[in-house]
Structures are given as C-alpha cells and as structure tokens.
Amino acid sequence: MSFYFEFIHFDEIAIGDFFSFVFKRFFFLVIVLTLSIQEAVGLLKLITKYFSIILFVSMLFWIVHLLGTKLPYSIIRFQDSVTYPEFYNYYFFIKADYLTFFPRFQSIFLEPGHLGMICAFLLFANQYDLKDKYVLCIFCALLLSFSLAAYVLLGCGWFLFYLKCEKRNIIYIFLLLSMISVLCSYAWEKEDNVVNEYILSRLVYEDGKLSGDNRTSEDFDDYFSKKIMTSSDCLIGIGPKTFQTKLSFSGSGNSSYKVFIVMDGIVGLLIVLFFYSGILLKYYTRELFLLFILYVISFIQRPYALWDSQILIYILSAFIFSNERKYKLLN
C-alpha cells in the first residue's frame, strides 16, 4: 500500500524520500503485525498513557490561559502553508488566530478536529473505560476540542459499542442522550455561547443542507465532478503536491473523501478499502466491525486513513478485540 501511493506520484518526490518513506512504512507495519496479544495490549496502554499525559499538561496551561494569565508565546506557521493561518505557540499548546470567539482546545496538534478524531478512535479502542484516568483524560480533551466531527464519532462509536451489550447499558445511553438534549436546548436558547457557536449553529438546515456541511467548497465540488470524475485522473489522482500547489479553491474545500480521490484516485481508494477490510476479515469480531464503520464515517469527512496513528490504533484494536478473553485476563 505504501509503495503504491509513493510510486504513482513518483515524479513529485525525490528518489531518496521515496525509498525512505516506503521502508519506514514497511518496517512499521512488519513490527506491528508481528506483535503478540500481550505486546499489543501493552502498546495500546502505553500510547493511551503518554498521549493522555501530553493532553493533561496541555489542558492545564490552556485553562490557565483562559483564566487570563499571560503566557509567553511565539508566532509559527505550518510549513509555509497557505491553507492554515498563523498559530500562537504557547509551547504547551497552540492556538489558531482565527478562533476569535473562543480558543478551542487543540493541544499541540494542527487542528482541534485532528485531536478529536484520534481521541475518538482511542476511546473506542479502550472500550470507553472511563474508570481509567488516562481514558477519562482523553475523553475530556475530546469534549474541549468542540469539534462537531469528533462529537459525531464519539456519539456513534459509543452507541454502536454499547448497543451489543446488555439492556442496562442501552438504558444508560438513553439517559445520557436525554441529558445531552436538555443541555443543547439550554445552549440554543442562550445563543451566545461556545456550544451554540461551534456545534449547534452548524446543525441548522438551510439552503438544502446543514450549515456545518462545509468540508468542500462549491468550486471544489465543481472541479471534482467536471474535471476529475470525467477524466483519467479519477483513476490514480493528480497527487498531493499538485493538489496543494497548483489548485486554489474558495471556502474550505480541503477535507472530504473527494479530496482523497482527487489526490490518489479511485484505485487508491480501493487499495485503502482492501487494506482495512483485509484486517477486518482476518481478525473479525463485532467490535472490530463497528470500529471499521467508525473509520468509514470519519473518512467521509476527513480522509486520513493513511495516517500512521489511525493504522496503528486499528491494528492494535484488531488484535485485542479478537483475543478479548486474553485481554480481560491481562486486566
């Protein structure tokens, strides 16, 4: 899979970078795929622990900042990107300068949505064990990201995971959803608050779609349907470098499954699908199938299925879920 995605866009990268990338990905996958169940559980716990520690420290300084304490900072940019604005680097967390209403928590990561997405997957992999202090910390970080996409992943994942459990858990879910509905209604009436600004206002249905359905712009949708899907570029794509440097669209237009097809084509999409489906078939459990569905939901609006973090969480979850009895014994 790694070889394919680098090979079809070989003209965009240096030969040294090509072989370096493929070797690192191959080496990474070989190590992960040869882990024992004990090692898989241990690695997931290690990732969860240190990821939560990073988030906890970030949240402390983020809260101190919100309380009005002046912290030292510098201005940074992401690789001279025109897509992202400047960031205020407070060293323990960063803040985008466009978040004028309220600085959503994003820790040291590029977007609050990136943080929320990985938190949602880690919560599922840890089976929503909020009694674990590290898992609880990740849960809090997701909530403070105020990412609608992360909230959707959390809600869908939580509901799907506990739907397979006993009726008592379904009652708990119903009570939780009822409480959330009451809080949302209260926030909607108050209007000028962070929940209404970043979450509820994006759920308003107008002009034939949700106001929060802004993953692609009209210019990009037009380019996708008229230029890509009607030409041979729909097969292998135009490559990420060409997409980033030669194309410019108004609005967002930079995140959706459509972006993946533009960059890597339908063939690339099928290879990713075969990769995740292959692991699902080899280690099939109901839990892994539900995680697969969660990945599909995430991919539709944020196509980051090739991120090492997503692949690692998915493979570790496959090992652990397929050996659930051994996993329970280890805990």
Automatic annotation (TrEMBL):
Q: Tell me which UniProt keywords the record has, alphabetically.
A: Membrane, Transmembrane, Transmembrane helix
State which residue ranges cross the membrane: 26-44, 50-68, 134-163, 170-188, 257-276, 283-300
- Return the protein name: O-antigen ligase domain-containing protein
Q: Which organism is it from?
A: Phocaeicola vulgatus
Which superkingdom, per the lineage?
Bacteria
